[in-house]
Amino acid sequence: AQSVTQLGSHVSVSEGALVLLRCNYSSSVPPYLFWYVQYPNQGLQLLLKYTSAATLVKGINGFEAEFKKSETSFHLTKPSAHMSDAAEYFCAVSGSGGSNYKLTFGKGTLLTVNP
Amino acid sequence: DTAVSQTPKYLVTQMGNDKSIKCEQNLGHDTMYWYKQDSKKFLKIMFSYNNKELIINETVPNRFSPKSPDKAHLNLHINSLELGDSAVYFCASSLTGAGDTEAFFGQGTRLTVV
C-alpha cells in the first residue's frame, strides 16, 4: 500500500521568494515519486520524478526536489518564485510490481504568488 | 497535435442519463488510465488498461464501464448518472505500465450532473 501526504493545502509566497512545498510518502516497496503541476482548467504536467537514481532531482521551470529516505520525504523547492508558478501542485507515489503500478496522489497544494 | 485528447471538454446532463467520454492518445503508449478529480481537487485512479487489457479497476461502481477498442483509445461510459458523479475526469497515458514512467494527461472532462 502507498500513500502521500502534502503538508499545507495552500502556500502563499511573494514573487522572488523561496518556494517550498512539502510531501511525505508511505510505501511498502521502494517508491517512485513524482511532482505534477496543474494550471487552472488544464490537465496535469510532470515537473520532475525520482526513480532511484540521484536523490536530488531537477525538473522543469527551475524546480527541484530531494528524496530523503530517512524522512520519507520528497519536498519540492524553487529558489525564486515567479508569478507564472501560481498553480496546484500534486505529489504522487508509485511502486514497482503488481497493484503498485499506479499513481497515488496527495491532496494537492495550491501555490499563490503575490507581486 | 494534442498528445492526449478527450472529448467533450464539458458535459452537463441530468440524473439517470447515460453518457460517454472519449479519449485518444497519439504518443504510441501502451498504457492508458482514467482518473477522477473531485470538487476538492483530489485525484484518484479509476481504471488502467495495458494494450487493451484491463489492469486496474479501483472499486468503481459498475455503472462505469471503460472500453479500449485499440491501445490508442480508452473510452468511459457511465450509466444511470448520479449527482455524486459530478467531477473532472482525466484520461492519461504512459509508455508502459511500469511505476517509473511518466503519465501524460488530457485536459479533462468536467461532468456536471443536475
Describe this structure in words.
Chain A is mostly beta strands. Chain A contains no helices and eleven strands. The termini of chain A are far apart. Chain B is mostly beta strands and 114 residues long. Chain B has strands spanning 4-7, 10-13, 19-25, 31-37, 43-50, 53-57, 64-70, 73-78, 87-94, 103-105, 109-113. Chain B starts with a strand and ends with a strand. The chains are: A mainly beta (115), B mainly beta (114). Chains A and B meet through strand 4, strand 5, strand 9 and strand 10 of A and strand 5 and strand 10 of B.
Keywords summarizing the entry:
heterodimer; A: mainly beta; six-stranded mixed sheet; 0% helix; globular; B: 114 residues; four-stranded antiparallel sheet
Outline the secondary-structure elements.
The complex is a heterodimer of chains A (115) and B (114).
Chain A: E1 2-7, E2 10-14, E3 19-27, E4 32-38, E5 44-50, E6 56-58, E7 64-68, E8 73-78, E9 87-94, E10 104-105, E11 109-114
Parallel strand pairs in A: 2-11
Antiparallel strand pairs in A: 1-3, 3-8, 4-5, 4-9, 6-7, 7-8, 9-10, 9-11
Chain B: E1 4-7, E2 10-13, E3 19-25, E4 31-37, E5 43-50, E6 53-57, E7 64-70, E8 73-78, E9 87-94, E10 103-105, E11 109-113
> SSE order of chain B, as H and E?
EEEEEEEEEEE
Q: Give the averaged pLDDT of chain A, no decimals.
A: 92
Largest sheet of chain B: 7 strands, mixed
Instruction: Determine the N-to-C terminus distance of chain B.
Output: 33 Å
Mean pLDDT over all positions of chain B: 93
Overall strand count of chain A = 11
Kindly state the number of beta strands of chain B. 11
**3D shape of chain B:** globular
Most extensive interface, residues per chain?
A-B, 28 and 25 residues
Percent of residues in beta strands of chain A: over 45%
Number of helices of chain A: 0
Report the principal-axis shape of chain A: globular
Please give the oligomerization state of what you see. Answer: heterodimer
Radius of gyration of chain A: 14 Å
Decide which structural class fits the backbone of chain B.
Answer: mainly beta
Low-confidence stretches of chain A: none
Question: How do the SSEs of chain A run, as a string of H and E?
Answer: EEEEEEEEEEE
Q: Percent helix among the residues of chain A? A: under 10%
